[in-house]
């Protein structure tokens, strides 16, 4: 693996955000020299409400990287919720709880988008203001919205997760607007120049699915000279958080590293997991073990900063081996 070019992480959700922080630590990036790590964040979860444009995944990633994540696992540490309290006093149904500073970021983002600015620039400026030691890029400047069918009805993603509690069985998933969206030039340039590309331990359908569904994204990943390595979100044969299992079941895949690998298909050069691929997953027509995708076995738990840096370091070392 060449030392030239950035490490690129495709990410969404808590697992992806934690690995982003681990990679920043392993690489030694700083807010003054962030270009060695580029995080491409899912924006299929974005939502417009309270007069704000809320980008949950890019913000979650930025807060983790800046070491500003609240103990709840979302939002900024020490944030207050006076606006939400005020809305409730007025009889507004507040189903999406947003901290005051978090809301301020979303309001400013909405203002800039209405003025014609790109989402890339609005998210990049927030990352710089928070002194994030990486470049955080939205997957696209065009709107893509994940929509789930479950419990006998269609849901916008955030409503499904919060009001519907992410409960299955899942009956359908679509990325509205994806046909008219494209990866940003910054995303494509980072992938082309990368020395390693990592797919984070995120929900492969909800968090990584919208990124890979962008026209041209899979082609860009297949064309890059960098090894593409996934980190499995399945830990000890189970999902630690979120509805990943329900979506894998809907997709006809087992809750295993093999199921995740099958969804990513031929963009992958290797996978980091804590279990063997059973059956082996490969690109040959007969699925022969000789063609099976390379596996690095690791402890996937990221309980603290040391765990995150360890997993990130192992992932980068595995990518270096694959690069030959």
Automatic annotation (TrEMBL):
Protein name, entry field: LPPG domain protein containing protein
Stored SUPFAM superfamilies: CofD-like
Pfam (any one): CofD
Organism per entry: Conexibacter woesei (strain DSM 14684 / CCUG 47730 / CIP 108061 / JCM 11494 / NBRC 100937 / ID131577)
Domain of life: Bacteria
One Gene Ontology term of the molecular function aspect: LPPG:FO 2-phospho-L-lactate transferase activity
Keywords, ordered alphabetically: Magnesium, Transferase
InterPro entries, A to Z: CofD, CofD-like_dom_sf, FbiA/CofD
């Amino acid at each position: 693996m060449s030392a030239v070019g950035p490490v690129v992480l495709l990410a969404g959700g808590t697992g992806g955000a934690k690995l982003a922080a681990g990679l920043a630590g392993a690489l030694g990036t700083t807010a003054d020299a962030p270009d060695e790590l580029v995080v491409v964040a899912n924006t299929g979860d974005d939502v417009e409400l309270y007069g704000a444009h809320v980008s949950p995944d890019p913000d979650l990633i930025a807060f983790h990287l800046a070491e500003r994540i609240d103990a709840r696992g979302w939002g900024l540490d020490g944030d207050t919720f006076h606006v939400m309290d005020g809305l409730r006093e007025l009889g507004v149904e507040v189903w999406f709880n947003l901290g005051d500073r978090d809301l301020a970021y979303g309001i400013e983002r909405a203002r800039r988008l209405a003025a014609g600015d790109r989402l890339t620039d609005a998210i990049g400026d927030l990352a710089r203001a928070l002194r994030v030691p990486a470049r955080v890029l939205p997957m696209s400047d065009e709107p893509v919205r994940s929509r789930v069918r479950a419990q006998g009805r269609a849901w916008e993603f955030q409503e499904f997760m919060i009001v519907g509690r992410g409960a299955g069985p899942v009956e359908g998933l679509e990325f509205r607007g994806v046909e008219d969206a494209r990866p940003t030039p910054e995303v494509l340039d980072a992938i082309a120049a990368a020395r390693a590309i990592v797919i984070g331990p995120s929900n492969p359908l909800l968090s990584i699915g919208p990124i890979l569904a962008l026209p041209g994204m899979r082609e860009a990943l297949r064309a890059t000279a960098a090894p593409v390595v996934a980190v499995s979100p399945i830990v000890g044969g189970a999902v630690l958080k979120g509805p990943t299992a329900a979506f894998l079941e809907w997709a006809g895949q087992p809750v295993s590293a093999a199921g995740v690998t099958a969804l990513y298909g031929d963009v992958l050069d290797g996978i980091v997991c804590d279990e063997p691929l059973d059956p082996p997953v490969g690109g040959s027509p007969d699925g022969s073990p000789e063609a099976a995708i390379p596996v690095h076995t690791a402890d996937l738990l990221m309980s603290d900063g040391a765990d995150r840096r360890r997993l990130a370091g192992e992932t980068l070392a595995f990518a270096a081996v694959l690069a030959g």
